[in-house]
Amino acid sequence: MNFVPQYDDSVREFYVFRPDVPAVAINPSYCLMPTSAAQLAAILADLKPTIELRDPWPTYGPWRYTHGVPWLVFPDGSARNAALIAGWWTMAQNGNFPLAQAEVFARQDIAGQF
Q1: What pTM value is reported for the model?
Q2: Alpha helix positions (H), the chain
Q3: How far, CA to CA in Å, does 5 sit from each of 59, 68, 69, 101?
Q4: Largest CA distance in the chain
């Protein structure tokens, strides 16, 4: 499968108690589009991931995000931001290593081998 991850650049972080403070753009590398998350889940189907929308990363205090992003949740309860896993394909497409290694590295990452 020729997987080309697409990232969402519309996610913003904002301060709940200060509407006058402008929202800040979140790095799209943490925000995979849902359609790309579905493709990624299909590639990793043998691991039985489900997709949940969650914050791009944990936030504390009065900071919130405009909307959630896809996370892969596995049967053992572990969860990974789908954009970070898809990043292996993006790095390969940018010439960092052979494309054939993207899935290998993604699976090693999910298994905690990095």
Answers
A1: 0.93
A2: 34-43, 82-93, 101-110
A3: 25, 17, 14, 15
A4: 47
